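Troubleshooting: if your tokenizer reports a length mismatch, compare your output against this known-good record of 639 residues.
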Amino acid sequence: MKKQIVFMLCILLLVLPLQIHATATPEKSVEITKENVQAFVEQMFEENMKEYQIPGAVILVVKDNEILYEQGFGYANLEQELKVDPSQSFFRIGSVSKLFTATAIMQLVEQGLVDLEADVNEYLTYFQIDTQQFQPIRVKHLLTHTPGFDERFFGMAAEHYSKRLPLREYLKENQPQLIREPGQYIQYSNYGMGILGLVIEEVTGLSYEEYIEQHILKPLNMNETYVAMNAAVEDQLAREYFPRGEHFQEEPLYDYHYPPAGSFVATAEDMAKFMLLHLNEGTWNGTTVINESTAKLMHERQFSQHPNVQGFGYGFFERLQNSHRFLEHGGNTGGTNSMLMIDKERNIGIFTSNNGFAGGLLSYYFPSAFINHFYPMSQSVAAMETAAQPVEEGLKRYEGSYYTNRYSHEDASKITLAMAPPIKVSQDTDHSLIVQNLGQESTFIQVEPLVFMNPETEQYLAFEEDGKGQITHLFYPDSFVYEKGTWYQNAMLHGILFGVFVLFSVATGLFLIIRLIKKLVTRNKQRNSTETRQSWYKDAGKLNMLICLSFLLFLVVLVTGLLQMDGIAAVFIELPLAVQLALYIPLITLILVLIQGFALIFAWLSRSGTVFKRLYYTTVLFLAMSVLLVLNYYNMIGI
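Known-good structure output:
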């Protein structure tokens, strides 16, 4: 059971856009000094590392072109008792890697080798992206996570970095379908960033790794940064851990098949150089990596779902909080959790990483808490915002549950929707909404039609309606898109149906065991019996039993497969054979359900058997059909 929980949670860390915004703010601004930062960081890290069972963490803050504060906490390697060192400990930075890819693409843009408006297929020679009936995917769409790709999680990693596939080969064999018009909605895409890495290879004739090393890492003297896992980092690598009771399990040296999206490893001090590069508009330590105009283009907002809601630059997320604008990118590999954030106005940058399974909560919570502590919002600003004239419209239409649009339409990883709590919106007053997200509850006041503002953080959320005035989407203050759910998407309903059917199936299984025992005891009498028996496909009782037994078989095989998934990395490598087989068993159940449907129609018409039996069999049939629909919704029938 422990491993199943791990399986679910580690996917959740990757799928959920965890962007938690704290609301408690001090009354006046706290100056960003080494002493104040140290006091704030040490208290927060010591408390949260213990709570989330994080073995090791690192934090580095730059200000005015210098390292203001850096500190390692805990251990990079528990077995060797190797403590975290900001200058020597290598951390997987996960999706923070995407900022290097974006920077490299913008180098090629300023050289005239890549056009932001061009169809990305113009640069691909090994294969072409199938856009089907949609418009071409442009380079700018990939930089702003708006290409329209579906999501895939299974098979995106190799069990050891030495088995990582060539980039072009992996991208060709694992192309997701296009599910929406490019440039329409944000949906975070690892595959899209992988394609940008391939564009770099196609245009320059160098491997992605060679290009990054020659044109970004060496010019910045980032000698302790590597594009992907390799033998050189093993000794000083912050190993990944998740807790098993009072102990920790160490993860293997897996790696992803698309380094441009998430395979970099680096020390905190090297990441300081990269932050300073962007804080200084593309030039650092006398070396220009990208021109000032190009850097500004990367940092400006290039796409947002609504003018009031934060969006993306080229590669960077926006964070709008407490009347300030920040640029950032997080990274979660499942076992290492990182966050990079820069404030260009005050010339401040923060990089933090940790190697604990649940450390994603700390890495995403920290920047928000840092802002609330050192950048408290002016109460006069909040007062001015809330003094706006109220909008005269009913708010009932906004109520409901909103689900992330980042899930797979193709594979069983869609089950994350059942584990990820939706954003719940309910009416508070005639002019405000209560919004619940990841355990936090906030009040948003309407400032214009479809737009609401949180007076405590000055963050906005916006809604989208269709031509009939029905609300369809929520644009939350985390740069992501959420779709308004319908009644049949309710995970609690799915759980109830599943649970009740399990009880019916288990009861049927126990009944069968008792019946078999009874038959063995009375087998001589049964041998002399002349009772006529119906064929199994006409006997509603036997069909009912077969349906329940097929479902029990599905559960047993599925659980057996999940128990074979040892650790975090197993989620991203390949589904065990038992899990793959389990997903085909519902097809047997489906056939039995169809046959039972006809058998019960005949039974009701002919009044065969007792009314109680017919009602019981009909109830089981309804539950079986409902559970099959739930499994189909989560792509858990077939592969």
